[in-house]
Design goal:
The structure holds 2 protein chains of 2 kinds. Chain A is of the alpha/beta class. Helices cover 37% and strands 27% of the residues of chain A. The longest helix of chain A is centred in the last third of the chain and has 16 residues. Classes of the chains: A alpha/beta, B mainly alpha.
Chain lengths: 234, 291
């Protein structure tokens, strides 16, 4: 579904990604793991074209993304739930969801998708008139994922959904990710919480200093001695 | 002095203030939405109104266009002017120091004023349209002022509904809270800024429709309304439309009642003195939260 070939990207003179190749097949959940500053967020940002591609190719279902501007990526079926959730704090929950369904194709399905998101996250229905910025971190993450679903995506990009949340909430967030998988979405997730994320995905890539260092099934990475020593602390 | 509550002139003054407040509220709306969304102050805002007034005047007086159509033309011209101002002048320097945006729109102010002086001369022009007065008890309320007040309220409510109910309006509110995340929603910030600028210009044009009924048109009329519009916005909390709305009525009543107890010029002096005091007490404005 999504394919990156030898992708390089960065911010100005700083290069964040070197020659990254990876693939996400339809129906899969794939994680990109790695330490802070490895370029995980940059990886999702280059797929969304929020940062420029300096080299290589990205394609979604055979369509090259190289010349697609950032605000058109969502029309190709890619929804990006950004780091730190980035809800509109002074809009209500429902208004945030409405923004997620801004594109023309999504407006026609607004009511049914809203009902779907509320069914998936009943808590959001209870809070639909509340300002998003006044909710707890876990609820905000629900809202952010719900906002991503409003465009009716095929592929969901999740950037550190567990970051900055209390441990008990982190567990709930990974349950959410599991639910999203069961709903049939293809997921590319970036996480620092390696032990948890490897339990919910099929495959993973290890990213270090902007380069893919290792890839394999979740099981393989979980059992790899280097990964265990460096990231899981066992 | 008599107890004012039984004095019909007192009440007439209060109502005049209220009506003037409606006009000020409308004038502040466009400036506020531009600042609230794009974070830029259009110093030349009142000069856009002036161009709108001239457009309406010439369409109506010289070309015989019916007044409502001429006013529609005025709104359209200023809306396009607002979009052009953003596209050609603001956008290239949007990410530089804020002082640059003040200086450049200040430059546009003098450009438009100079342009109007050259093109239209300093002559005072009047549309010569009067709708008479409404008599209520011992009070006389000019119909044009009442009309201006009603149009202001309708515009405020209409804008509120637009911002609250439509996708575009919601996006305009959203972009003021987080610009960089907008592309992930499939929204082009550049397009939203352009639409917002046209909207701000359109509101300035609507202000022109009201002012053209109430005042003479001349190249420096912007100086009469520019500072007070700016102060209304600042007192309400720059970018806060509800705050600006409240501040507009406070200002207008100060001016009207000042005029009732002394001369109208004293009304302005008192209103501006109040503004200065307010800036010491609440520098962020009545409802402002920004620092």
């Amino acid at each position: 579904m999504l394919e990156l070939k030898n992708v390089s990207a960065g911010y100005g003179t700083f290069q964040a990604l070197f020659d990254v190749s990876l693939e996400v097949r339809a129906g899969e959940a794939v994680a990109v793991i790695g330490p802070n500053g490895a370029g995980k967020t940059s990886l999702l940002r280059v797929i969304s074209k929020v940062i420029d591609l300096n080299g290589g190719q990205i394609s979604m279902e055979g369509v090259a993304l190289n010349d697609v501007p950032a605000h058109r990526i969502i029309e190709l079926g890619i929804a990006h739930v950004p780091e730190h959730r980035r809800l509109f704090p002074r809009l209500t929950v429902e208004e945030n969801l409405k923004m997620g369904g801004f594109i023309a194709d999504a407006r026609a399905h607004f009511e049914e998708r809203l009902a779907y998101v509320y069914e998936l996250f009943p808590r959001m229905k209870e809070r639909r008139h509340q300002l998003a910025g006044t909710m707890s971190g876990g609820e905000q993450q629900m809202c952010a994922i719900g906002r991503g679903l409003m465009s009716g995506p095929k592929l969901l990009l999740l950037d550190e959904p567990s970051a900055g949340l209390a441990p008990v909430i982190v567990q709930q967030v990974f349950d959410l990710v599991r639910r999203i998988r069961q709903e049939g979405y293809t997921v590319l997730i970036v996480e620092q919480n390696i032990q948890q994320v490897l339990k919910v995905v099929d495959r993973a890539y290890l990213l270090e200093v902007g380069q893919i260092k290792m890839s394999g099934s979740s099981q393989e990475l979980l059992e790899n001695d280097d990964v265990r020593r460096a990231y899981i602390g066992l | 002095m008599d107890f004012p509550l039984t004095d019909p002139f007192f009440w007439e003054t209060v109502i005049q203030g209220l009506l003037f407040g409606g006009v000020l509220a409308l004038l502040s709306l466009g400036l506020n939405i531009i600042f609230g969304v794009i974070d830029v102050v259009w110093i030349c805002y009142a000069e856009l109104i002036m161009i709108g007034m001239y457009t309406i005047y010439f369409l109506y007086s010289d070309y015989g266009v019916p007044l409502p159509l001429a006013m529609g033309g005025g709104v359209l011209v200023v809306a396009v002017l607002g979009a052009a101002l953003h596209h050609f002048i603001i956008r290239p320097i949007l990410h530089t120091e804020p002082i640059n945006q003040l200086l450049v729109t200040g430059g546009v102010l003098f450009f438009l004023q100079g342009f109007a002086t050259l093109a239209f001369s300093v002559e005072f022009r009047n549309l010569g349209v009067s709708f008479g007065s409404i008599e209520a008890g011992d009070m006389y309320i000019p119909t044009t002022r009442l009309l201006a007040f009603v149009v202001s309220l309708v515009a405020v409510v209409g804008l509120w509904l637009f911002l609250k109910r439509t996708y575009l309006g919601t996006a305009i509110r959203a972009i003021s809270q987080d610009r960089d995340v907008m592309p992930l929603m499939g929204v082009s910030p550049r397009k939203i800024y352009l639409v917002t600028s046209a909207l701000g210009g359109g509101l300035a044009g609507l202000g022109a429709c009201l002012l053209v009924l109430l005042y003479d048109i001349h190249p420096a009329i912007g100086l009469t309304f520019g500072p007070i519009t700016f102060m209304v916005c600042v007192m309400g909390g720059l970018g806060n439309m509800i705050g600006g709305f409240i501040a507009a009525f406070i200002f207008a009543e100060f001016i009207a009642l000042g005029g009732f107890y002394a001369e109208i010029e004293w009304g302005y002096v008192i209103a501006f003195a109040f503004f200065i005091v307010m800036m010491f007490i609440r520098p962020q404005g009545i409802l402002g939260t920004k620092n």
